[in-house]
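Before a colleague's protein record goes any further, I have to sign it off. What it holds is a sequence and that sequence's fold in token form. Would you go through it and say whether the fold makes sense for this chain? The record follows directly below this note.
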Amino acid sequence: MRWGSLKFRLTLAATLSLALALSLAGFGLTILFERHVERRVVRELSNHLRQLVGALDIAPDGTLSLVAPLADQRFAQPLSGLYWQVAERGKTPSLRSRSLWDEVLTLEEPPGHPARGHVHRLEGPKGAPLLALVRAISVKRGERRIRLLLAVATERSEVTKATRDFARELVLSLGLLGFVLVLASWAGLRLGLEPLEAVRRRLAGVREGTARRMEGRFPEEVTPLVEEVNLLLDAQERSIERARERAGNLAHGLKTPLTALRAIGRALDERGQDDIAREIEAHITAMHAHVERELTRARMAAGHGVRRHGELAPAVRRLVDVMAKLPRGDALSWEVCIEDGLTAAIEAHDLTEILGNLLDNARKWARRRVRILGQAEAATGRVHLCVEDDGPGVAEEDRARVLERGRRLDENSPGTGLGLAIAKAVVAECHGTLELYAAPLGGLGVRITLPRAHAGPAGRNDA
């Protein structure tokens, strides 16, 4: 998954959204849990407060006392965290639990005179925050009534600790849930974006020449895009076909006048007008080379559709048989070292065009031997085809120049200097490379690298 890809962006957006949602959910659940624990603590304090009210007694002399201790033993343990206190409003507390020891709670009269008490947050012994339930009651002392404030309190650390433990477990749970949800989102995105990946693969097949159109079943949201691309491919194919026909017609139309001009040049030569004849011949040769080049280009443009699989060994052997019948061809030793079944993703006539130029070049310059090697490179999925001779070769500093159009190192040799240039152009059109090197035989070596052919819908077409 690459940075900037749609899958990465959607996954990142889903992850951030889930993280935000789970964070808010965790924060909200923690607050709800804290309130729930606090309400439960308040209910316990309410029970203690009812016991305190029930146990409170006023003697005839007005002295306050408890007829029975409260049930929870923590009230009798100093600084246990659970406390009670009874005080007359505005006066020093009359009664308090042993757990308070020498501390006193500062109480405020609850508003509204609630029957069940009012929750206060107080500061307890040693500054510990307390959660207190305070209730005001009116009792008769002699001839008058007095107002008492009764309070039961517990340290709020119990609520805080329970909330902290809950939050810790909640974070772990939500983290695991978030991880599972992110994986599910990623799987859903991958499944949802698979049609786009299928479109990419189909387009790659069209680009590589293994398919002419985008075929297959696609979701209805993607189908309009596929149909538009197919219409564009059809229009491009028709345009290329028309351009190829025009270029072919133009080139073939020029071949006849060129042939006539060449005949005129020979006639002038026979009449002794050598200078004019050679000048005409030079121009005709150049024009003929350009016509051949345009014919090659037109044929390559027509081959931009489905790329057939060209088998190398049969094509090389047929061309070697042809070269052996040409001048000097029968005097050379032709060695073909290519394993059977080795194929390249190239049209048969393109393969013939490339090998024809390379073998003809080797025939002209070899002294005794020409060797053709072919092998596949499994790691890269490429095929290497090498043509080597034992001729004079080409110096390293001149190799780039001989690949230029019309460039010949020996101007006295026959030819137009377009053979290697055309071969390089055809190889490039087939998504390959061509390079020159010093052959082990002593002459020039030409290495062609092409994509290896794989079985596909285009079928197979041996060269």
